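Weekly sync notes, structure subgroup
Attendees: PM, AL, DS (notes)

Item 1: joint prediction request from the bench team. They want all two components modeled as one assembly rather than separately. Inputs as received:
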Amino acid sequence: MSAIIEFKNVSKHFGQLKVLDKVDLDINRGEVVVLIGPSGSGKSTLLRCINGLEMITSGDLLVDGMSVKGGNKTLREIRQEAGMVFQQFNLFPQMTALENVAFGQRHVRKMGRKAADNSAQELLEKVGLGDKSKHYPHELSGGQQQRVAIARALAIKPKVMLFDEPTSALDPELKQEVLNVMQKLAEEQMTMVVVTHEMSFAKQVGTRLIFMEHGKIAVDANPVDVIDNPPNDRMKDFLRHV
Amino acid sequence: MNIDWSIVIGFLPALLNGAKITLYITVTGLIGGIALGAVIGLMRAYGGYILNTLAFIYVEIIRGTPIVVQVMFLYFALPVLVDIRIDPMTTAILAIVINAGAYVAEIVRGAVLSISKGLTEAGRAIGLPRWKVVVYIVGPLAFRRLIPPLGNQCIVSLKDTSLFIVIGVGELTRTGQEIMAANFRAVEIWTAVAVFYLIMTGTLSLLLRIIEKRMRIL
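Output from the run, pasted for the record:
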């Protein structure tokens, strides 16, 4: 297995604040990496550095061999390799579900309208929303919106999917429909990096669990091994609270 | 006190002509002002340090001075300073462009910045170049929020044209004053002038309400 994401001594500062501290991390194709940690530990920042929504301060970060420091054009290529799903869904409110999904294909992948609409419809069916294609985001529940957002990210045919707390803004009964879609993706061998507090998802779907603390990777292990048996007190304490 | 409304009828053509000039200055001035304001507003929202500062200085100077002073400056001071002479009509239009431009810039900036940062990130995250994010995602959303304050500015600018009486442009207020000077029918003439303004601003308000109704704020 070869690494598709390579953090090489990556640091990230916001002014004086050090958010990522000399992180080294290789993520291989097909892995489902679950990132956990207390708030402010740098897990979201680590994720957002991968597609360049945050620029790294030092070190290097390669995605499919391309450096995030390679300039705007390279960055756009990286973003086409790494789809992102946000906590707040961020669907384009002036577009229907279908238009949201087709938009990236038409404007980024330069697909024709017809082909883009067809493949968008397929993707909506894949996330179980084939009948909602003409609905606007405000007409959908949070769980449905998040599934559309996943379809939108998948539409640009990424090699990696980045999830930034995808179920944190959802009511408990809506979380599961999103987690099910994510599980299906993992079963299709999609490489995934997931920031989440859903420990059952981490155990069932995750192939690797990373516990972050103070901008460093504190624990990097198999989820099943460490969730029930945390290797240190900080993680034990953290897991007691989620 | 003898008030005779029938005398207004005789002056209707003159007043109508004044209203036409008012409308002409307003419409041409606002087309320019909205275009200028859009550019300046985007400079404020997206420009780097230099563009942003330049735009900021422009907005502060214009918002900080009365429009009468601005039009006087254009008409009387500019010829002295740089030897450019412009006729009253052009001066009037230019004054609306420059003045409305500053206010529209702030309206545009506010509308653009009110669109959630998450939507911009979502656009960038699917690999869109920055300009496409502005044109396809932020733009259409900001436009909807722009309509109410923009309509307000249109009404203000229409009424501001009455101040061009100071440089002798024959718009509605000036026409009213000229008629008044000849027959001293203050009540009838100024009422008629006010009604003309109300018809124009009323139509604008109505138009805006229709546009707003057809466009959901998202």
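Discussion: Residues 3-94+145-150+160-240 of chain A form a domain with the Rossmann fold fold (CATH 3.40.50.300).
Action: AL to compare against the crosslinking data before next sync.
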